[in-house]
Amino acid sequence: MKRIVLASVLLFGGAVAVSATADEKAPGFTALQADRAGADYGFQGEYTGKIRSNDTEVQLGLQVIAEGQGKFAWVAWIGGLPGAGWNGESPLRGAGEREGDAVVLKADTGRGEIRAGSVSVYNNENVRVAELTRVQRTSPTLGRKPPEGALVLFDGTSADEFEGGKLSDDKLLMQGCTSRKKLGSGELHVEFLLPWMPNARGQGRGNSGVYLQGRYEVQVLDSFGLTGEQNECGGIYSISKPLLNMCFPPLTWQTYDVQFQAAEFGTDGKKKTDGLITVRHNGVVIHEQVKLTHATTAAPVPEGPDAGPLYLQDHGNQVRYRNIWFNPAKP
User: Fold this and answer.
1) How far, in Å, CA of 313 to CA of 214, rounded?
2) CA-derived radius of gyration, the chain
3) For residue 1, what is the DSSP state?
4) CATH for 3-135, options being 2.40.128, 3.10.20, 2.60.120, 1.20.1050
5) Is the pLDDT of residue 17 over 60?
6) Residue 3 above 50 pLDDT?
7) CATH superfamily of this structure's domain 151-328
8) Which of 38, 96, 165, 223 is most solvent-facing, going by the fewest CB within 10 Å?
């Protein structure tokens, strides 16, 4: 398939009905519910379908990312969305903006229209070459129940298991708290919701972090559509970037399932072996047996032989958590 076919289309975005808010253009605008997200929210998301090129059809995944005040970016993935068919080739990227009740995502030539949740893509000869349908992916481990013997850290009834733990009005755990229980090796399950912050960028957009033992951070960030780096969602901060970027759009519940093996220390207090970590993000392995060579950036607990807490970082953004449990490794 010729990549130029994909690079030369315009895509229009059609919004789901949501109520606009007066301050959606403010730099720090944040929403935690779709009905408060403003006009741009309904355009952002994921789309899939087949595109015709040279008498063949190829599966295509499209991610549309809102960048505030009617500005957008788009990413096209050959084979399907990340974790759902993408063939590993570098994706195509472009920018766009809202025009009236549509969003135009611009490339060299061509055009496309999204109406009622589908994208009609046309080439520069005005021939429709693709029809993409909006999809809402759900993590296969969402709602996963703790096994017998697991430590339930948060089930929505109380934040008492966390120092500094606070519940939101809708009974979710707010960022910026530390588990009272100390954890060693085992499996962690945690579900998180990224806020809608379309005007923010980089580390200021839905930033938090899940710290194993208070030492090793699996980054939490609105990295939807980004390249997938060590300081983006799913990255082990300052140690390893994810194998692929599995970040869903903000205001979508996401999951981390983490297998953690604690570092070993000798009687002299020196580290003998690094810890190991395997991470599944939304059900897809993004790190496999990665060595934790040092405590990650901003870790509140230095490396050492003792067990440590689960720390959910407060980086100034309104990230929410639920269904958190830890299953200790059998001796």
Assistant:
1) 9
2) 21
3) -
4) 2.40.128
5) no
6) no
7) Exo-inulinase; domain 1 (2.60.120.560)
8) 165
